[in-house]
UniProtKB/TrEMBL annotation:
The keyword Transmembrane helix is annotated on this UniProt entry: yes
Protein name: Uncharacterized protein
Keyword terms: Membrane, Transmembrane, Transmembrane helix
Residue stretches spanning the membrane: 30-51
Keyword Transmembrane in annotation: yes
Organism phylogeny: Bacteria, Pseudomonadati, Pseudomonadota, Gammaproteobacteria, Moraxellales
Length: 89
């Protein structure tokens, strides 16, 4: 499973390097549709990579701290106790 995001990101990065060198040669035939699908592909690969990172973290001991950090970033007013209960400050 971890090989798929790595391969996809490598392919996208190589195409991105080609497009940066001569952008108009590659964007003219496809136009806006190519650009939209390219951006959607980058987002999809990013989601796959985050899912892979998340699954690895859930197997480690630091998963609880990662989950608490995500909860804090989503709603900084709520705080979790050691037992996992939500407490209003």
């Amino acid at each position: 499973m971890s090989l798929v995001p790595t391969l996809l990101s490598g392919i996208v990065i190589s195409y991105f390097k080609i497009i940066i060198k001569r952008p108009f040669d590659y964007l003219k035939p496809f136009g806006v549709a190519f650009l939209v699908f390219f951006i959607l592909g980058l987002v999809f690969i990013g989601v796959l990579a985050l899912m892979e990172i998340d699954s690895r973290l859930l197997k480690s001991e630091s998963a609880i701290y990662f989950i608490m950090l995500i909860d804090f970033l989503q709603n900084p007013k709520l705080k979790k106790t050691v037992r996992g209960e939500l407490v209003e400050p």
